[in-house]
Structure formats: structure tokens, C-alpha cells
Amino acid sequence: MNVDITFLPSGRSASVRAGTTVLDAARKAGVPIRTRCDGKAACLMCKVTTASGQGLSPLSDNERRKLAGLEGQGTRLACQTKVTGKAVVEVPEDPLRAAVRRQLMRQAEEDELW
Ligand code: FES
After folding, report:
1. Which of 77, 81, 87, 96 is 20 to 30 A (C-alpha) from 21?
2. Hey, is 16 helix, strand or coil?
3. According to the model, what pLDDT value does residue 78 have?
4. Amino acid 102: pLDDT
5. Residue 20, Cβ neighbours under 10 Å: how many?
6. 43 near 35, Cβ under 8 Å?
7. Ligand 1: does its nearest atom lie under 6 Å from the Cβ of 45?
8. Rounded CA gap, 23 and 20, in Å?
9. What region holds the 2Fe-2S ferredoxin-type domain (predicted)?
10. How far apart are CA 7 and CA 16, in angstroms?
11. For the chain, domain boundaries
12. Are the CB atoms for 89 and 47 separated by under 8 Å?
């Protein structure tokens, strides 16, 4: 059975087999999610958030331990979370890209002063 998952803020989506990890679904949708351990729950770089948790597998003990309290804010590890139904997850902006964007905004504000 295939299920749909949508990634925010891009709005890209993918139809994947139920049980596919969010990380693999993101790859199929062409949505970049940072990872160093390639899905072994070691790097903790693949965090995504979900408002409702609907359409996603329940937290495993390993994921809960790795998240150390962040799960209460809707944070999940994309490599450990499986898509079980229609789901929507938000992928945070890459920290390097966010830093560059903030710097460019600051520079534009300074340019306006001149
Ligand atoms: S990919 Fe490394 S913890 Fe998920």
C-alpha cells in the first residue's frame, strides 16, 4: 500500500510504500535532509518536525532516548520514523544556508542606510 507524505516548506511530496522511512521518502521527493550516519540514528542531523504526528510510526525507545526531550515539541528523526499514512513533516532550513541568508539580510539593511 502506498501512502503520501508532504514536506514543508517546499510543499514537495512523494508516494511511498507504507513503512518507508521519512529519510528515504524525502530522498524520493528530492528534499534534502542532512545526514552523516546514513540512517543509523547516530548523527542526529536528520531532525524534522511534525505538528500532529499523524501518518507516522510511534516513537521507538531508541528514538526517544536519542531525542532526549525534543519529541515533546514534535521533533522526530527522519531515519527512524516510518511513514504509515498520509503525513506532513517540516524540514528545518540547513544551518549554513540560514546563516548566509541572515548575513545577506543584515547587509541589505545596512545598504538601505546609505
Ligand atoms: S541520519 Fe543520522 S541520526 Fe538520522
Report:
1. 96
2. strand
3. 97
4. 93
5. 20
6. yes
7. yes
8. 8
9. 3-95
10. 13
11. 2-113
12. no
Of ligand 1's listed atoms, the one at least distance from the Cα of 80 is 4
- Ligand 1: residue of 37, 64, 66 to mutate (most ligand atoms within 8 A of CB) is 37
Tell me the C-alpha distance between 86 and 91, whole Å.
16
Architecture of domain 2-113: Roll (3.10)
Q: Beta partners for 13?
A: 6
CA 12 – CA 44 distance, rounded (Å): 23
56 DSSP 8-state letter: B
Centroid of ligand 1 to alpha carbon of 84 (angstroms): 19
Query: Which residue, judged by its Cα, is nearest atom 1 of ligand 1?
Result: 39
Which grid coordinates belong to 109?
539593511
**Could you identify the residue written with the cell 546609505?**
114
Residue 26, C-beta contacts closer than 8 angstroms, at least 6 positions apart: 7, 14, 32, 33, 78, 91
pLDDT one-digit tens code per residue, 32-90: 999 999 899 999 999 999 987 799 999 999 999 999 888 888 999 999 999 999 999 99
Indicate whether 114 pLDDT > 80: no
